[in-house]
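EI: anyone free to look at a 98-residue chain?
SC: sure, send it
EI:
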Amino acid sequence: MSKISLKEFKKMMLYDVVEKNSCIEVNFCVDDCMEYDDCWLGKMPDLQKKQSIYWYGLVKDGSQAYDYNSLEEFLKVKIFNGKNIVEIWESITLISYW
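SC: here you go
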């Protein structure tokens, strides 16, 4: 498990998955939060539209799964109990990423 800076995270999420036909997947938790103890986020290509899709999968039952078309929207959406990921970044611990 590790911490990275918000700047490093944004840089990772700017990787061109469409051009490289790849994806980014990050398993993470929000420290001291039982609800968000095994979450996923990522970026994948929509090759038909030639654009990236940013996504969250916050709980195991799939009830908190979200897709966004831009990094800005992905970072600003308030899905963590009324806060966005930027606001809680200091409490994010990365479990694994690729």
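EI: The chain is about 20% helix and 35% strand.
SC: 👍
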